């Protein structure tokens, strides 16, 4: 995939039916558990996500933009995502994003990647 297509895919992710725009990163569960009770709690939750999961996702996205092998990136994402629930969510979102990407830009590269990761590659 060319850099231009990759950039468009990242920019369009929230517009695609891939679910990235609908994933809260666990905010609903935190509200239900009483860890988020107000705007200040939500702000703290979002800052925590930004400095942990967000930082990891940004690093992986930057590595992908530099052309690092997607198989190495997926292994790196697994290693940096200790929670099985977060790994499953990242793979589900990645699978949905891949489905949208293959519909928008059909080609053998994406077909091969989808076949290599039938459960989905990590979204970043």
Q: Secondary-structure element order, as H and E?
A: HHHHHH
Q: Quickly count the domains.
A: 1
Strand content: under 5%
Oligomer: single chain
* Major pleated sheet: none
Number of strands: 0
Number of helices: 6
By secondary-structure content and strand pairing, the structural class works out as mainly alpha
C-alpha end-to-end distance: 15 Å
Please compute the radius of gyration using only Cα atoms: 15 Å
Query: Unreliable segments (pLDDT under 50, ≥5 consecutive)?
Result: none
* Average pLDDT metric: 82
Shape: elongated
Q: Level of helix content?
A: 55-70%
List the helices and strands and how they pair.
Blueprint: H1 3-12, H2 27-32, H3 39-65, H4 70-79, H5 84-104, H6 108-116
Helix pairs in contact: 3-4
Q: How does this structure look, described?
A:
With 124 residues, the chain is mainly alpha-helical. It has one domain. The protein contains 6 helices and no strands. The protein is elongated, with a radius of gyration of 15 Å.
Can you give keywords for this protein?
124 residues, mainly alpha, 0% strand, 6 helices, single chain
Write a short abstract of this structure.
The chain has six helices and no strands. The chain has 124 residues and is an all-alpha fold.
């Amino acid at each position: 995939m060319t850099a231009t297509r990759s950039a468009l895919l990242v920019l369009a992710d929230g517009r695609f039916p891939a679910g990235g725009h609908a994933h809260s990163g666990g905010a609903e569960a935190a509200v239900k558990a009483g860890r988020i009770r107000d705007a200040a709690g939500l702000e703290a939750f979002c800052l925590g996500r930004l400095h942990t999961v967000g930082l990891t996702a940004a690093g992986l996205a930057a590595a992908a933009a530099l052309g690092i092998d997607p198989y190495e990136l997926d292994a790196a994402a697994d290693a940096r995502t200790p929670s099985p629930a977060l790994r499953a969510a990242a793979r589900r979102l990645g699978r949905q994003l891949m489905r949208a990407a293959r519909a928008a830009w059909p080609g053998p590269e994406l077909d091969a990647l989808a076949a290599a990761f039938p459960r989905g590659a990590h979204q970043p």
